[in-house]
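Morning run. Coffee first, then this:
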Amino acid sequence: MAQTRGYFGLGVEGISKPMNAGSLLRTAHAFGASFVFAVSPYVNMRGLNKSDTSGTADQVPYYQWETADEIALPKGCQLVGVELTDDAVELPSFRHPDRAAYILGPERGSLSDAMVERCDFVVKIPMAFCINVGIAGAITLYDRMISRGRFAERPVKAGGPHAALSPHVHGKQVFRTPRIPVPKGGTKPVE
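And here it is:
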């Protein structure tokens, strides 16, 4: 999996089906989430081993809050709601924040008005009708990965790339203050 800058978490509001909750947590873990969370879940989030066979809650931090107002994200982390609303940004046109927490609504429901108000952004997956919450989470995280990752260019014709992506090369060190050379090959700030 391609490494990217920043981090992300994935959560759900009001989820009620243990298999969906477990699937969502497993997906987050598989895509490299830094944390997972739930807001007012109707299931025991720790008892999801039937569908979350990776044991996400034992591998990454798990947080649980009762209301949208209680959510305590790391400084600079932006909350991104995933919801089918008329004014939501379509996911393929959305630039993902470096530090993001994605939240999805419950089965047979939507994010609460309080949660939508709490979100910094609301995105929607362009489709004709709602899909399973676990699938929506996977599509959202896949979009984050392909839009922020470093992958070989897609070829013009069908199939995979003909050449492997060249390794990333770091440039020389950049100093913000002028420096002068010192013996033994080092530098020191100009005073």
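The mean pLDDT is 86. Good start to the day.
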